[in-house]
Structure formats: structure tokens, C-alpha cells
């Protein structure tokens, strides 16, 4: 999906000023209410439609969306718009993204996300079989192997640029799990601390 958030930097600057890595805020779109969690390190929006079990995730590459909106989310957004079906003019989710982008340029009222809130929301956004939570480091110093491009791409997408750079420079892979744990929250809440500790072990 080729969509770019124009107000992404201004929004992140607000978070940096308050030194918050993961935030929750409310967002209204047409007749629907949403709870949104944004993670600085992951550079991702987890979007939960209130009153439903629908949660979807938008991973960003800088300010650009890297994935398309899945069908379940598309159907729920279409309901919000409440427009009659027209095969010649189907609902376009860009309408939702533009509204969210405009919301980001305002003085968004956000709060720091708790670990429980993060896990209960993100678990609904990702199928159980997909492993997105950090589990462990896998150093390759003594096994004559190298971190794969596939693992680096996943690390960059799930954990962010800083972790991917660290893994590439130190030949370290990351093991993921589908079960949330304390460490999987800490790696996105305090990446500097986690990386500094790991560097001491190399």
C-alpha cells in the first residue's frame, strides 16, 4: 500500500520530548471509535476498533506503510463510513489513513502504554501461529553460521532499525515466539538498555 504519513515526524517528536517509547491514544473515524497503540522502536500502529475484536497493525518504513490492510479490517472500516455499496466506487481505506494522519498533526492526547494493554491488544492483531515477540538472542560466534537476510528483515520489521543494525554488525540472530513475555516488552520499551546489556556479553 503506497501511503505516506505527512505528520509522522511531528507526532514522533512529541513522544521524544516526553521520552515515551510506547503510547496509547483515542481516535474517532466517522461513526467509529478506535484505540491506537504506537511503538516508537517498532514504528507500528496497532489499531483496535472499540466494541469489536478487530485489531490490525500497520508497520511503517519511516513514514510509509509497508503492508496492505487485511480484509477483516477493511470490512470494519467500510462499516464506519456507512456508505451504500457501489461496485464502481468501492470503499477506499486511504480515507481512514488520511483521517488518522490529520489526527497526528493535532495535539494528540496520549498516555504511556502498560505492558498488559500492549499484549492484550497486539495478540489480537497477529494470528497465533505468527511469532512476533522477542524470545532470545542467538549469537553465531561459535557455530560457524551467519545471521540470515530473512532474520534481519524480520528483526527490522518487528523490532526496528537499531536492533537490525546491531544483529548485522555482531552476527547475532533473534529468536521469536508467539507467546508474550517480560523481555519482549522490554526490548521495545527500553531498547538502549537492552542493547547496551547485550553488547557487554559479546
Automatic annotation (TrEMBL):
The organism sits in which domain of life? Bacteria
Spell out the InterPro entries in the cross-references: DUF6037
Protein name per the record: Uncharacterized protein
Which Pfam families does the annotation name? Answer: DUF6037
Amino acid at each position: 500500500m503506497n501511503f505516506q504519513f505527512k505528520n509522522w515526524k511531528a507526532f514522533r517528536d512529541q513522544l521524544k520530548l516526553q521520552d515515551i517509547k510506547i503510547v496509547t491514544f483515542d481516535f474517532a473515524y466517522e461513526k467509529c471509535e478506535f484505540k491506537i497503540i504506537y511503538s516508537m522502536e517498532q514504528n507500528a500502529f496497532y489499531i483496535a476498533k472499540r466494541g469489536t475484536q478487530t485489531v490490525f497493525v500497520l508497520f511503517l518504513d519511516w513514514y510509509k506503510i509497508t503492508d496492505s490492510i487485511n480484509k477483516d479490517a477493511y470490512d470494519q472500516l467500510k462499516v464506519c463510513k456507512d456508505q451504500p455499496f457501489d461496485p464502481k466506487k468501492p470503499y477506499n481505506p486511504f480515507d481512514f489513513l488520511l483521517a488518522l494522519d490529520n489526527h497526528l498533526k493535532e495535539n494528540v492526547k496520549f498516555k504511556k502504554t502498560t505492558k498488559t494493554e500492549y499484549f492484550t491488544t497486539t495478540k489480537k492483531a497477529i494470528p497465533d501461529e505468527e511469532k512476533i515477540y522477542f524470545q532470545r538472542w542467538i549469537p553465531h560466534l561459535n557455530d560457524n553460521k551467519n545471521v540470515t537476510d530473512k532474520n534481519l528483515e524480520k528483526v527490522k520489521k518487528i523490532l526496528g532499525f537499531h536492533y537490525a543494525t546491531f544483529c548485522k554488525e555482531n552476527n547475532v540472530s533473534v529468536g521469536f515466539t508467539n507467546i508474550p513475555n517480560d523481555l519482549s516488552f522490554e526490548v521495545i520499551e527500553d531498547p538502549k538498555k537492552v542493547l547496551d546489556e547485550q553488547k557487554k556479553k559479546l
